[in-house]
Design a protein that fits this description.
This protein is of the alpha/beta class. 37% of the residues lie in helices and 15% in strands. Strands 3-2-1-4-5-6-7-8 form an eight-stranded mixed sheet, sandwiched between helices. The longest helix has 27 residues, at 268-294.
Length: 295
């Protein structure tokens, strides 16, 4: 019998490390997935060096975690980086010096890496893990987006784009994930003191402007009900497809804009069924073609 098991990416520092400590204090075992190990030892954790932007590397980490514990209950896809390129600040007036190809590493990490993590989590969470004491198939996923995914932050447009994308991804996946016993939500931290910001930036803000880490942990707890993980109905209850901003001492819930009735491109309930059937079959065909190509 194994205690409940979590994977947290980017868990060697900042929000990920704080969440790791919170879970281990409640009896969880946590796989710390990060490119560097934590600077301090945390009981009931396993560090696995992971570059989430690489599918094979992240897949190995998930497999190692599941093989070691026989279950996976919660995944926090928290790892992320900030901008590696700019557009308008580097314009050249010299026609012989066109722009170079931009650095898009942030999309590989923040967006592609998070998408990889969701796909891997869905697989391992829905395996039969009853031998390890897990009562139901399924689990909960929390994606770390950002307040910049709600209110655009002009100084970091790449970061803003990836975080907006994550908010949309969570909203789109929620109804589908629910059908297989998975609940997926997003946490949007406001200004939090972590190692992400450039050196010296945080010195320009007062403590009254910085959101405490305790608020962000409350966001994760509200979304995932960690204390109820061993209850029979844990995977079937709770929030799903929701976006919560942690801002100072407040948890701010952001609702998806309503589609105008005069332009409901989804076509109501019948239209949604038609969309789902068409794309499910099309994507199955793509998966089969890919599988055949690799034989």
């Amino acid at each position: 019998m194994s205690p409940p098991v979590a994977i947290i990416t980017g868990a060697s520092s900042g929000i990920g490390l704080a969440l790791t400590k919170h879970l281990t204090s409640q009896g969880w075992h946590v796989s710390i997935a990060d490119i560097s190990p934590p600077r301090e030892e945390v009981a009931n954790t396993t560090y696995i060096r992971t570059d989430i932007s690489t599918w094979d590397n992240q897949a190995q980490m998930f497999q190692q975690t599941y093989e070691s514990h026989g279950r996976l209950d919660f995944v926090a896809l928290n790892a992320g980086i900030d901008d590696r390129d700019d557009i308008f600040a580097s314009i050249s007036s010299d026609s012989t010096k066109p722009p170079r190809r931009p650095n898009l590493q942030i999309f590989d990490v923040n967006l592609n890496g998070t998408y990889y993590g969701i796909k891997l989590a869905a697989h391992y969470m829905t395996l039969d893990s009853s031998a390890a004491g897990k009562k139901q198939k399924g689990g909960k996923i929390a994606v770390t987006a950002s307040a910049a995914g709600i209110y655009a932050l002009p100084v970091v447009p790449q970061y803003t784009a990836t975080k907006y994308a994550l908010v949309g991804l969570v909203r789109a996946l929620g109804p589908v994930a629910d059908k297989v016993g998975i609940r997926i939500n997003a946490v949007c931290p406001a200004l939090v003191a972590t190692g992400l910001a450039p050196a010296g930036l945080m010195d320009n803000f007062t403590q009254e402007q910085i959101t405490p880490m305790s608020t962000i942990i409350r966001c994760f707890s509200e979304l995932s009900d960690f204390e109820d993980v061993e209850k029979d109905d844990w995977v079937a209850k709770g929030r799903n497809g929701e976006i919560v901003e942690g801002n100072l001492s407040e948890l701010v819930w952001h609702k998806e804009p309503e589609i105008p009735k005069t332009n409901d491109y989804q076509g109501g309930d019948e239209g949604k069924i038609a969309w789902a059937e068409a794309y499910t079959q099309r994507n199955r065909n793509f998966a089969m073609m890919d599988w055949e190509a690799k034989k």
